[in-house]
Amino acid sequence: MKNNRIYAILMLIISMMAVSCMDSYLGIEQPDFGTDTPEKLTVNRVVPMAGALEIHFSLPAGNPNHAQVVATYINKAGNQVEFKVSRYSNTILVEGFTGTDEVTVDLAVMDESGNRSDITQVRDKPLLSPVEVARASLLATPAFGGVKLEWDNKEALPFAIHVLTEDEIQLGVKTLIEDPSKTIYSSDSVNTATYLRQYDNVEQTFGFALSDKWGNRTDTLIEMITPFKEDIIDYNLVEAVTYFNPTYGTTSKDFAEFGVDPVTGLLNDATTHSAGFAPITMFNGVTTANNFLARKFYEESSDGQRTYIDDVYVTFDLRQDLRLSRVQLYPRPSSSYLYSRSSVKRFRIWGTDDANASRWSKFPEGWTLIGEYEGKMPANSASITQEETDYFYNRQEYAISEDNVSLEAIPTESFRYMRLQLMESYTANENFYTINEFKMFGEVLKYY
């Protein structure tokens, strides 16, 4: 009997809870602000921008239920494009236009219940969009192993450059096909040039079209281009030489004692940390390791203060006569080396050949300055973009002729022996340099 009473009481409680749940909603109820149409907003000013209109407005006073302002227009494809800002803003940026013809934008105020005001129309002319400006300035020219592309992006707005190459879709019928792996993404005003490689040294047709995130796409620039002949220099042939007295050491050395050869009076090569960081590790095909590390010499004052000497040398026998077209530098991949620390910012390439019988006893006499090169800096060091990061780690390239900054250099000279002069690191007070890989491209004239 006792158990039956407990069971009956429990069933009564459950029944009462069920009825209670049916009678009321325990969730968050949608507030009802009525069905009145909000008043129209007032447009104060319209500022034409690149592919956009910046519209300044005022909301009607006295209505606390305003939620947002909605702007819409119909694009050239016939689709409606919509933008929204909250009631706390007094401007709305409407983007995605092309051309400079007058456009119409509809503006409405929406309240908390979703009611919309009557339309306020804005008619004005935007400026040319970023893709149109870039398309007008787009220049495609022959380069070693491919094509050099240059364009303008002064507004630093994002767009893509699509690359089309000739393909034979059936016997005797060729057409331009887009190569997605070659797509270029631009989003800053500094890095507005790139190289497309590797292509054969034959005349061929290239196409280039630009698109933005709004679905706008330009017409296609079509060019007949013959890339210059270029080989990837075989790093397996490269040997380090010891004629300039390279040494190992885990700390920097005194220039007065180790910096100059007492017999020749020439500057010695650098002190490298160990065999695992020796100069030859720059030529092993590994682009993502922590390889070459060369220490700067120092001069010490009478009070014990050390000043590090930026100029450091390393010397190689390439075992081939070559004419360089470009080089790629791969720094250490750690984030602490990104445009910073011991990563090489400025360097020189010196070259000579077997005709220079005094190459190991005289320098720079008898050697040719092939070129001097300086690394780029990000547009804003406090906010480095993903594109700038990718460039630094993976696409840091120097065209031997175009990027040379020395009037004394002869970039077209061929050579067998190379002496790299490291001149500046990204952080001035670092006492060493690092390079993971020094990749070379050019024309090989003779092998040894």
TrEMBL record:
Keywords: Membrane, Transmembrane, Transmembrane helix. Pfam families: DUF4959, DUF5000, DUF5126. Residues 32-123 form the DUF4959 domain. The keyword Transmembrane helix applies. Residues 129-234 form the DUF5126 domain. The chain crosses the membrane at residues 7-28. This is DUF4959 domain-containing protein. It comes from Sphingobacterium gobiense.
